[in-house]
Amino acid sequence: MEKHLFNLKFAAKQMAREAKKCEKAEKEEKAKLKKALAKGNVEGARIHAENAIRQKNQGLNFLRMSARVDGVASRVQTAVTTKNVTKALGGVVKSMESAMKSMNLEKISKLMEQFERDFEHLDVQTQTMDEAMSGVTTLTIPEDQVQGLMEQARDEAGLELDLELPTAGTATHTSAEQDELTARLAQLRNS
Question: Where do the coiled-coil regions begin and end (predicted)?
Fold first, then answer.
């Protein structure tokens, strides 16, 4: 069917080319008609006029046939595309049927439960790492430099704020939270 489609498209293009040739021949005949009239050759002018009209009609006929063949080619193209889509859909349906038969809902449910547990463990580990990193960052930056920079920014902005950085007592509180998270993480690993 695709071979026929190619042949139809080729024929339509060929007819369109023939129509252009007829149009060119019509213009040439009209030019010859004008020359014959200028020379006073009425009989020659009549022949060139008939030829010009014949070329025009023949060109129109080629255009009509080209349009009809192109329309048929479009219908064949639709049929070929529909056939291919239908074939592909048939394959998809067969694949879906085999996939549905091989699906074990109990296994999928267990897998999802395991995924949820692992995801919770990951959350705890991520939170522990974030807090540990936050503690390390706070300890590595000198408090007096941070306090000085904040006071400088406050003075430049003309703000009156009571800015105090966490004291050693707060650091102990953070350490207790970290110990609690470490214990939770160990418990999760054991379960």
Answer: 8-39
| pLDDT tens-digit profile, the chain (191 residues) | 788 888 889 999 999 999 999 999 999 999 998 998 888 888 988 999 999 999 999 999 999 999 999 999 998 898 888 888 888 888 888 877 877 777 777 777 888 888 888 888 888 888 888 777 776 655 566 677 767 777 777 777 676 555 444 454 455 556 777 788 788 777 777 76
Residue 173, domain member (yes or no): no
In the chain the beta strands, taken as DSSP E runs, fall at: none
Cβ atoms of residues 55 and 22 within 8 Å? yes
Range of the domain at 41: 1-75
Distance (Å, rounded) from C-alpha 97 to C-alpha 154? 69
Q: Is residue 91 part of a domain?
A: no
Overall number of domains in the chain: 1
**Calpha distance 134→187 (Å, rounded):** 23
Tell me the C-alpha to C-alpha distance, in Å, between residue 70 and each of 13, 73, 133.
Answer: 9, 5, 72
In a domain, 32, yes or no: yes
